[in-house]
Design brief:
By secondary structure, the protein is of the alpha/beta class. The protein has one domain (3-253): NAD(P)-binding Rossmann-like Domain (Rossmann fold, 3-Layer(aba) Sandwich). 43% of the residues lie in helices and 15% in strands. It is built from 7 helices and 7 strands, in the order E-H-E-H-E-H-E-H-E-H-E-H-H-E. The chain has helices at residues 17-28, 41-52, 68-82, 105-133, 155-175, 197-204, 215-227; strands at residues 8-12, 32-37, 58-62, 87-90, 137-142, 179-186, 234-238. Helix 5 (155-175) links the parallel strand 5 and strand 6. Helix 1 (17-28) crosses helix 7 (215-227), helix 3 packs parallel to helix 4 and helix 4 (105-133) packs parallel to helix 5 (155-175).
């Protein structure tokens, strides 16, 4: 098989953290990976190089997903460079704190652009590409168990992800049969600067199963969503059951 025979997936936010894990997982499974990044140029090049060691062909592409024109140009750039795109995994997300007391139009607009608008535009572009190729494709949107277990923290982020979850249903209806659209909703998966190692370990264990999602769990679910031809218009929760427990605050503020 030549490199052009392998399917291509665009993974947004793939330079670091969970996006990088997803990119590497898909490369191991035989996908050629288009590594999207905004500002993490060196990390994106490293991810692309690591993916290229696992499957033939991987490249990095820069775009500010809050910019409509830049987002519209992204998928055509990948097609021009890699020949085709078969799937998009929307992992990139703006995650900045606000609450009802600090809410502003500006914060909501920023989150809606990056977290909701960009995935819709990329689905639109993939649908047009699939029609042109007379083929099919799939969009996987990373969501959050928070949507099924709400609290007032990170209000604009949560609203943007809730809008994206609703868009899953509408896009799955509108873009079929060319595209499938699937959500994947992790629980607490990676630590951050806001959590100590001990605190992360304790919070990760707060679930009916005694553990939340790991990067490997999320990656396996994304791969499942990409390859199972009968799933569309729904969300797979991968959180050890954390959405079944009530949390009064966001993990980072507990």
């Amino acid at each position: 098989m030549s490199a052009s025979d392998f399917p291509v997936v665009l993974v947004t936010g793939a330079a670091k953290r969970l996006g990088r894990d997803i990119a590497l997982c898909l490369a191991r499974a035989g996908w050629r990976v288009a590594v999207h990044y905004r500002g993490s140029h060196a990390d994106a090049l490293q991810t692309a190089a690591d993916c290229a060691l696992l499957t033939a062909g991987s490249h990095a592409f820069a775009a500010d997903l809050a910019d409509e024109e830049a987002t519209q140009a992204l998928l055509p750039q990948v097609v021009q460079h890699m020949g085709r795109v078969d799937a998009v995994v929307n992992s990139a997300a703006l995650f900045e704190h606000d609450a009802p007391a600090s809410f502003s139009y500006r914060a909501l607009d920023q989150h809606l652009r990056a977290n909701t608008g960009a995935p819709i535009l990329l689905a639109q572009a993939l649908h047009a590409h699939a029609l042109q190729r007379q083929g099919t494709g799939v969009v996987v949107n990373l969501l959050d168990q928070k949507l099924w277990n709400p609290n007032p923290d990170f209000l604009s982020y949560t609203l943007s992800k809730a809008a994206l979850e609703a868009a899953n249903t509408m896009l799955a209806m509108a873009l079929a049969p060319q595209l499938r659209v699937v959500g994947v909703a992790p629980g607490l998966t990676l630590t951050s600067h806001m959590l100590s190692d001990d605190k992360f370990k304790a919070l990760h264990a707060l679930s009916p199963l005694g553990r939340s999602s790991t990067p490997q769990d999320v990656c396996a679910t994304v791969l499942f969503a990409l390859t199972n031809q009968s799933i569309t218009g729904t969300t797979l929760l991968v959180d050890g059951g954390q959405h079944l427990m009530k949390f009064e605050r966001d993990f980072s503020l507990m």
